[in-house]
Amino acid sequence: MKKFIAVVLVLCSSLVASRAASGPGASSVYVEGGSHHVQGISYDAAKDCMYFSFTTSFVKTDMSGKVLGSIDRIQGHLGAMVFDQSRRKVYASLECKDDVIGTGLSDFAKGRSMFYIAIIDVDKVDKVGMDSENNEAFKIVCVKDATADYHAKVTGGDGSVMDHRYGCSGIDGVAIAPRLGKKGGKDFLYVAYGIYKDLDRSDNDCQVLLRYDLKSLDRYAGLVRFGEFYDKGPSKPKEKYFVYTGNTNWGVQNMAYDPVLRKMFLFVYKGSKPSFPNYDAFVFDVSSKPVRRLVDGVGYDTAKHPMVGTKDNPVPGVRFKYGSTGAAPLGGGLFFLSENGRDPKTGVQNCNARLYQWDGNGFKPAS
């Protein structure tokens, strides 16, 4: 009996590998959402299907764009996401906060913002119009570091008191990748801060990435209760990295790791500080070891942190109009990237997830 089970498992694994190797069933997938724009996308190679975040809804489609299931009542701002094939779960950023982003999405959060990783069991999303409350398919984990930095007040070099340590506005981009400085090994979840655009401070010129153990996040996950905050989560990340890019508008919107190229891609809404080139996307080598040092521009933090890039040698970037509303890496420089749009008559938001190829200098349509 054990031998039979082993044979079945091998056959199933071979089928998944074969399907993944054959590539996606379409070079583009079009889907419509509601009144909120697309925030993130993921591709499931085993099932050859797509997942979309439309801010207050999670949508699962086949490669023709047919909706197979959805979670439509999400309390807060569901953002970027990444799919973990081995666990068959999507990990997505979720913000419940009291600022312009939270208006109309998490009004219960007055005076008490909190940030989460939403863990979505995609195989349990089997109906259209599911609810996120008390749903085993949709669990959350508190991101305590981001919550603390968002609420912190810091003192600038001129003695002025500023809100939000490192300019933290919450979280958004997420990716699954090995530990920075390694060429492989165990995978972790990386969570990127949102960063407020502010031309008058220098402590917001880095992207901040938190690294978490995936199993640990799963253990802390709990159910959503509308109108309540869930505060369970790791007390701190495995590591906190600073990536020097220059200030952006709302930080890393989407983040994607290519395991073949061993590169991390950060897609942003470009910044406007005149001292920076203000790229739309940044790329760095994950296998290069970060340097532990004082963070450039952050005078109030006297601790040394691992940094990628410096003020004198920032992380390189490119100019490209897509990716900030969704990026799903397939490996070898191939990505599904979100081309977001809106019907001018109805106001309905849409996403065309289209295959692009990274050529080392930029992205071009793959077909």
Description:
The strands form 6 sheets. This protein has a 6-stranded mixed β-sheet. Strands 1, 24, 25, 26 and 27 form a 5-stranded antiparallel β-sheet that branches. Residues 1-21 have low confidence and may be disordered. Helices cover 10% and strands 42% of the residues. Strand 25 (334-342) and strand 26 form a beta hairpin. It is mainly beta and 367 residues long. It has helices at residues 2-22, 144-151, 214-220, and strands at residues 28-32, 40-44, 49-53, 58-62, 67-73, 77-84, 89-96, 114-121, 130-131, 138-142, 153-155, 161-163, 168-178, 187-195, 206-212, 222-223, 239-244, 252-258, 263-268, 281-285, 291-294, 304-308, 317-318, 327-331, 334-342, 349-358, 363-365. The chain is built from 3 helices and 27 strands. It has one domain (24-365): Tachylectin-2, Chain A (5 Propeller), CATH 2.115.10. The termini are far apart.
Order of helices and strands: HEEEEEEEEEEHEEEEEHEEEEEEEEEEEE
Number-wise, the strands total: 27
Percent of residues in beta strands? 35-45%
Structural class of the helix and strand makeup? mainly beta
Rounded radius of gyration (Å): 20 Å
How many domain regions? 1
How is the biggest beta sheet arranged? 6 strands, mixed
Enter the CATH topology name. Tachylectin-2, Chain A
**Low-confidence segments, ≥5 residues, pLDDT <50?**
1-21
Q: Could you say which overall geometry the principal axes of the C-alpha atoms support?
A: globular
Please list the strands of the largest sheet in the order they lie side by side.
13-14-15-17-22-21
What is the level-2 CATH architecture name? 5 Propeller
CATH class: Mainly Beta
Q: How much helicity do the residues have?
A: under 10%
Helix count?
Answer: 3
- Estimate the mean pLDDT confidence: 91
Through-space gap between termini = 47 Å
